[in-house]
Amino acid sequence: MTYQTGSIPIKYVSMLDEKRHIALFYEDKEYARLIEFWFLKIGLERGEDCIYATDEDSGSIVIKLLSYGISLDHFLSKRIRVYQISTITGDLETMLVSCKKEINRILTGVRSPYRIVARIVSDVSTIQGMSAEAELENLTHECFENFGGTIMCPYDFSKIEVTKKAEWIKSLYSSHHAVIYVPKSGEGGVICTC
């Protein structure tokens, strides 16, 4: 594991030249969004397809991406797509089936190389949600070589179930190539786990 001290997460995202599975843990939502949007903007500049999937209203995300400087032409040419993820609930097996359907919907028609900002289980405030998301992260990482791009998985610290938070976050380190941390205080850092 390498910790890049003094490294701004934006700089790390700017220098990505090979596909990676990245976790983004944040306390500062606006700075995290800046990292996500910059990640996508760099991908678009490199000719990659980009996907932003969220539980937030997709229309408001499109407006934010446009105001960030993502060209309307990218939306019209479908080089960038925004999806609103449904809330996924139920037992672990039901959740995983629903998650796989969402993943298939998102990946339909995407061309490699691509960049994705997404987390399929939007509610990790419960142990059930954490379990389903951890299982998806492990499955994704195990077959990552078959993916045609880079994936960024954002996690808001304030919305993670508290009794298992530290243990769960630590387990996610092994299912990502890098972990970006963005504290309230600002800059943050990057831990490369590979």
Query: How many domains?
Result: 1
Report the CATH architecture.
Answer: 3-Layer(aba) Sandwich
What is the CATH third-level topology name? Answer: Rossmann fold
Rg on CA atoms, Å: 16 Å
Structural class from helices and strands? alpha/beta
Name of the CATH superfamily:
P-loop containing nucleotide triphosphate hydrolases
- Morphology: globular
Mean model confidence by pLDDT? 89
Q: How would a crystallographer describe the biggest sheet? A: 8 strands, mixed
Count of alpha and pi helical runs: 7
Overview in brief:
The protein is built from 7 helices and 8 strands, in the order E-H-E-H-E-H-H-E-H-E-H-E-H-E-E. With 194 residues, the chain is of the alpha/beta class. The relative contact order is 0.23.
Structure overview:
This protein has an eight-stranded mixed β-sheet with strand order 1-8-7-2-6-5-3-4. It is globular, with a radius of gyration of 16 Å. Helix 6 (127-142) links the parallel strand 5 (114-117) and strand 6 (149-156). It has a single domain (2-192), classed as Rossmann fold (3-Layer(aba) Sandwich). The longest helix is centred in the first third of the chain and has 17 residues, at 29-45. By secondary structure, it is an alpha/beta fold. It is built from seven helices and eight strands; from the N terminus they run E-H-E-H-E-H-H-E-H-E-H-E-H-E-E.
